[in-house]
Here is the input.
Amino acid sequence: MKDIKEEPSIVDKAQPLTDNTPWFGIQLFGLRQKELSEYLKEKDIESFAPMHNVVYMDRNGKRKHELRPVVSNLMFVKMTVDGKELQQLMDERYKGHFYIIRKAKGSLIYYQIPAKQMHEFMIMCNPEILLKKFLTESEAKLKKGDRVMVTHGPLKGLSGRLVRSSGKYYLLKEIPGMAVMMKVTRWCCQKLEEE
Here is the structure.
């Protein structure tokens, strides 16, 4: 009898989570992600903008592929500085062109995305993974589903909500400002206790 080898998980292939530093979500107004990302890099601050491959036709009618932001006015910044320091740092060059997402409307407290949640979200946003859908925050809230942990297959170790769309099952991961759904087999998921 042959040994059954389990496919390595996406989590195993990705860098392990060793840093527990949370992240900020930042909404941009008339500011390009690439420009802000380069500015933050100069200041030794890590940032992330979800990207996906887009197929388009050039002027000569040839198909081209290009890596573009999923949402042009949203990015995430690692909290290596506190919210006030980040606000001041960004105000130096981009005052009025960004908004650090807060816990609630009118709140002074910045929303902090836990490192584990952000790590899983970044894995799910990998442009090489094709069976996924991106959603707005409001679209994600309309989806009903149980909190699950994937126990088998390439998504092993990821957690989120198990939702159904167009007769297929997806693992839904939400982050302030957007969400991503990846196709999953429901039999590979184990229900988690509600928090």
Summary: The CA atoms of residues 55 and 65 lie 5 Å apart. The two ends are 43 Å apart (CA to CA). The longest strand covers residues 168-175. Residues 1-5 have pLDDT under 50 and may be disordered.
